């Protein structure tokens, strides 16, 4: 008859709270492409993408255009897709260099973290890249070993 052992157990649970210790990261780090000047308003011209390793709102990303679009020609959707808001005119502006910011949605007192990416767009003029038709006109020359030697003019007709 020994003394009964006196013991009990207690289970302790911890919730590990996420700290906002990761900034959004863009991949790739820059974007460059060409767009045609007559794209329809609302056309998506490029999509940027950033990731944030934190959880919940600490890892939720909101995109915005920080600079480079003073005339408001572009807007950016929640998914990072940049689209046109106005008709673009290459004669008015041929190159855009946008700075896009990705910011997480951490709640105070956690500080929100952000990063930026450069997006360059060169405008292309439509209608002048390719001749619409080419005609070959044979012309005769003399004085060579061969009595007839054909050479060709190429005549390009550009659309009005
Ligand atoms: Ca974060
Ligand atoms: Ca974290």
TrEMBL record:
<dbReference type="GO" id="GO:0001736">
    <property type="term" value="P:establishment of planar polarity"/>
</dbReference>
<feature type="domain" description="Cadherin">
    <location>
        <begin position="27"/>
        <end position="120"/>
    </location>
</feature>
<feature type="domain" description="Cadherin">
    <location>
        <begin position="2"/>
        <end position="26"/>
    </location>
</feature>
<dbReference type="GO" id="GO:0005509">
    <property type="term" value="F:calcium ion binding"/>
</dbReference>
<dbReference type="GO" id="GO:0005886">
    <property type="term" value="C:plasma membrane"/>
</dbReference>
<dbReference type="InterPro" id="IPR015919">
    <property type="entry name" value="Cadherin-like_sf"/>
</dbReference>
<dbReference type="InterPro" id="IPR002126">
    <property type="entry name" value="Cadherin-like_dom"/>
</dbReference>
<dbReference type="GO" id="GO:0007156">
    <property type="term" value="P:homophilic cell adhesion via plasma membrane adhesion molecules"/>
</dbReference>
<dbReference type="Pfam" id="PF00028">
    <property type="entry name" value="Cadherin"/>
</dbReference>
<keyword id="KW-0472">Membrane</keyword>
<dbReference type="GO" id="GO:0007163">
    <property type="term" value="P:establishment or maintenance of cell polarity"/>
</dbReference>
<keyword id="KW-0812">Transmembrane</keyword>
<dbReference type="GO" id="GO:0008104">
    <property type="term" value="P:intracellular protein localization"/>
</dbReference>
<protein>
    <recommendedName>
        <fullName>Cadherin domain-containing protein</fullName>
    </recommendedName>
</protein>
<keyword id="KW-0677">Repeat</keyword>
<keyword id="KW-0732">Signal</keyword>
<keyword id="KW-1133">Transmembrane helix</keyword>
<keyword id="KW-0106">Calcium</keyword>
């Amino acid at each position: 008859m020994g003394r009964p052992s006196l013991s009990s157990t207690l289970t302790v649970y911890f919730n590990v709270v996420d700290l906002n210790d990761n900034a959004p990261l863009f991949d790739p780090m820059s974007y460059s492409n060409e767009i045609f000047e007559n794209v329809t308003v609302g056309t998506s011209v490029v999509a940027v993408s950033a990731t944030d390793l934190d959880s919940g709102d600490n890892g939720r990303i909101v995109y915005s255009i920080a600079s480079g679009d003073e005339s408001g020609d572009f807007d950016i959707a929640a998914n990072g897709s940049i689209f046109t808001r106005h008709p673009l005119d290459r004669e008015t502006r041929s190159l855009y260099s946008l700075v896009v910011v990705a910011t997480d949605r951490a709640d105070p007192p956690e500080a929100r973290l952000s990063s930026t990416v450069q997006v360059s767009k060169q405008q292309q003029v439509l209608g002048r890249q390719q001749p619409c038709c080419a005609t070959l006109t044979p012309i005769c020359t003399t004085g060579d070993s061969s009595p007839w030697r054909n050479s060709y003019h190429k005549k390009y007709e550009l659309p009005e």
